[in-house]
User: Fold this.
Amino acid sequence: MAKTKKIISAGPLVLEAIYPRGSAHDSPKQRAGKRKLSSEAQQRINQKYSWQKLELQLAANYVPGDLWVTLTYDDEHLPQSRAQAERCFAYFLRKLRAARGRRSQPVIHWNSEHKHEHESYWEDRRWHHHFFVNATGADFETIRRCWIYGSNVHFEAVRIDKDHSYEALAKYMCKEARDRPGLRSWSYTRNAKHPEVETFSVPDDTPLQPPKGATVYEEASERTEFGAYRYVKYLAPNWRRGIRRPRPRPKRRR
Assistant:
């Protein structure tokens, strides 16, 4: 007999699952039992919710040292609608692209919010934008200069470890209820990387264990008389060694 193995790789984040596959020789009862195990495994690894899709997008594009930025408006420039807020952010993005130049185009995932309060942003249901951006080492003044709609710009460095996950960042970005059904709660630039998906057959006795040294976020398994499935989500071991952060650009002497 054989099983199906599915692997989703998004930068350092990896999701793996092994689950039973049906056989032409299975009885109706066996097919039903295997189908149930397969369905449970696929529900864990498939990206059903918006935050799950965003989690993999963030992992594929950002590493510690990249930036999580919040842009807020002053009273003079405060938008009155989502459309107006999105136009302001689009203008900011055009200015940032021009400032970064062709060799270092920004990779950005962003959302626009207005329905919650946050003491750090001195906002009460005011429009604001959160976004992740790949860092170059000379971003703070560039971003402040490109954001012409207010002086309050908040920066945080992306941090990923056992207690700080891409999942938590994605859930925060998707926390606000959508203005209408079908409206996506986040967007991204065209140059963003996407997770890689592999699905293939493996022998029935193939084990599924995270690599030694991996940071495991989630594990699940179930065994019945019809077979077993196993699922694991982890950060690959030694993934930080592959990170090469850009150095700040030297200032030109006048």
Notes: The first helix runs from residue 28 to 45. Residues 119-123, 244-254 have pLDDT under 50 and may be disordered.
